[in-house]
Amino acid sequence: MTGYEENVDNQGKIAILGAGHVGSHCAMSLASSRFSGEIALIDLDPRKAEAQAQDVSDALSSFPSHAVVRAGAYEDCADADIIVIAIGEPWKPGQTRLDLLGASIGMLKGLLERLKPLNPCGIVITITNPADIVADYVRKGLGLPRNRVFGTGTLLDSARLVRILSEMTGLAREDIRAFSLGEHGDSSMIPFSQIRIEGRSFDTFDALDRTLILERTRRSGMDIIEGKGSTEFGIGQALASLCHAILSDAKRVLPLSVALEGEYGQNDVSCGVPCLVGRSGIEAVVELELTEMELAQLAESCGIIRKYMALVQ
Where in the sequence numbering do the catalytic residues fall? Predict the structure, then answer.
C-alpha cells in the first residue's frame, strides 16, 4: 500500500526553488506519496524546470495521484504554503559541506532579493548546504520568525543513523528511535543516552560500537557522493515527510535546524535539534535530557557552526 492510498488529504501549494537533482527528487517524492496539491518547480533555467516538471508528471500516470506538477515562477512563492530552497552547487568528493559556504551565500543573496519583495506567507524550508548556516542566513534575510524559516538540518542524518542501527542489529527501523544532533556535517553528534531500540536503551546492546556508529553516520553522505556523484533519494523522502507533517498538522517530532533561544544552553546559532512540527511550522523545540558529555558535544558542534556563521556577510 502506498502512502498516497493511505491519505490523500494533504493539499496545498509547494514551491521548490532549484530543479536539479535534489529539487526534482523532492518533487518526485512529494508527488508519489500522499500529497494531492500543487508543486511548482522554479529554476534560473526555465527549460530545465519545465523538463523536470514534465518528467515527474509523466511518472504520475503509472499510479494513483492527484498531485499537479508544473514549472513555476518566483511569483508562485508569494502564496505558497511551503517554499523549499534547494539551490546550490553539487557537493563533490573531498569537500566538506562547509566548503560550499561561499558559493551558496552568493546564490542566496540573489534569491533573497527576489523573494523578500513577495512577502511570502508560507513556511520556508532550506536544504542548501551548509544547512545550518544557510537556514540562519535565509531566516535573517527574510526577517521571519524561527518557526517559519528553518533547515532540514539533521533530519537526513537521523534517517541514516536509524538505517545503520537497523543494519547492525537486524531489527526493523520502525522499532528504532534515534536522533543525530548539531551540525549537518562532520561535527554532528549522537545522544546515545536517548536511543531506544525495541523500547530498550542503547546500553543493553553490548555489541554496538558508539565510535563506529558515529563515524558511519557522519560519513554516510560522502560515501554516497563518492559512489554515485550525488545524494537525492534520501533527502527527497525526508523533505516529503516534513512537508506532510506541516500540511497535516501532524505534531511530529523531527530533528531540524532551528535558531536556538536558550534551549540546550545555546543562543545565536542554528543547529539540528528535535522540534515539534505542525501547521505553523516549528511549534516548539524539544529539549532531550542529555548527559553532561552530550551537552558538551552539542556545544562543540554549535561552536563550529558559529565560526562559519561569522564569515557570512
Answer: 184
